[in-house]
Amino acid sequence: MQTRTVQFLASLLFLTTAISSCDEKEVSPWDRMVGVSNQIIPPVFPDRTFVITDYHDVKDTLYTNAINRAIAICSEQGGGKVLIPDGEFFTAPIRLKSNVNLHLSDSTILKFTADPSLFDTVQTRIEGIDCYNISPLIYAYGETNIAITGNGVMDGQADSSNWFSESRIRGMVQEDGKKINEKTLLYEMKEDSIPFKERVFMRENGMRPQFINLYKCKNILLEGFTINRSPFWLIHPLLSENITVRKVKMQSHGYNNDGCDPESCRDVLIEDCDFDTGDDCIAIKSGRDEDGRYWNIPSENIIVRHCRMKDGHAGVAIGSEVTGGCRNVWVENCTMDSPELDRIIRIKSNAMRGGEVENIFVRNIRVGECKESILGFELKYWHVDDGPYLPYFHNIHLENITSKKSQYVLHLDGFEDKIRARDIFVKDCTFDGVMKPEINKVIGVENIHFENVTVNGQDFKGV
Q1: Is 313 a known active-site residue?
Q2: Matching PROSITE patterns, A to Z (predicted)?
């Protein structure tokens, strides 16, 4: 009897240990991505349609009032679709409301005025700094269940005669002979600790606005349309969650024309989109300096898949305004190819901005060519060599990437006297046409692993 009891207890112990071992088995990061993907659910809308032409006063040369009135009525009545039919329509900024799908028909061209006197002043962030500025071309604050869909074109009409004029880009000459623009004034206000409610830029003194800025919103769908000639960043979700950006064509080559910049956002899916931009195709952010530390909200759970990147400073960037941190980013099944695409994956910050970037997973990327490197780190971004808030980048995985041409595989520019980036894993990759004989340029980064990697037709084992 005692022997049976001992055997039973031993069996129970083995079973308990086995179950515990199964429970503790590490879950693949790509399995975790599937879990995140499943919780990103696009909003749905009631089957009601409000056509903007039904609200248009023929005396108006712009459709601003008609569009905003249709949106307001749609939202007040419980939601539905606000339809912009085929044709060319001119408008000032649009304010999106809860439970509204703003839909552009296939042959719609929606053109936005560049007259800043027609822009309201709203709360936003410009390059990670909180402020009040002239309204983005499409803006929402604190709304739920919102969408912009359809195959039409939205044209910001930005060019050198308006948003990209010499005075706006380079600044106006002051009495002391110094040139300064509005964005530089905002930087100075931040440095002088001016409260953000006093950082106000109105009408002609407004900074170049984002095309789409969705601030503190939930349940967002952006699908199908084309954006071109944006004054500033194209798509800027801010402090928002549950976001789907799908089949959007971002084609804009102006100053600071980032494609899609989720900032301090969570649960974001960017898929089947086309990027051809004047700055980073995608740039994940989380605030800058003291403003970023005040909010201290990371960007997390972000998926980029089945996208196509042409020109840009990076295919997918993180930073440089990443003070709140960034974690859990997956990039897969993308094609990136252009002599004017600087880097494939880029992570950037400095010792004034800080921020921890971790758990970045990249696989199945086809690179035709890029100008500099497959993976780029900049820990001294904008020539800031020292400061009290050291950034930290770690746990970065690259898998099954093929490239036909680049200067380097890795270009990792850290601190010469300290290690603030580590744990880089490169696996099952083929890099051809690497121009620099040293293959990689690495400063201040440790624990870099290569497994089954070929460079210029030769097995590559290390840095």
Answers
A1: yes
A2: PROKAR_LIPOPROTEIN
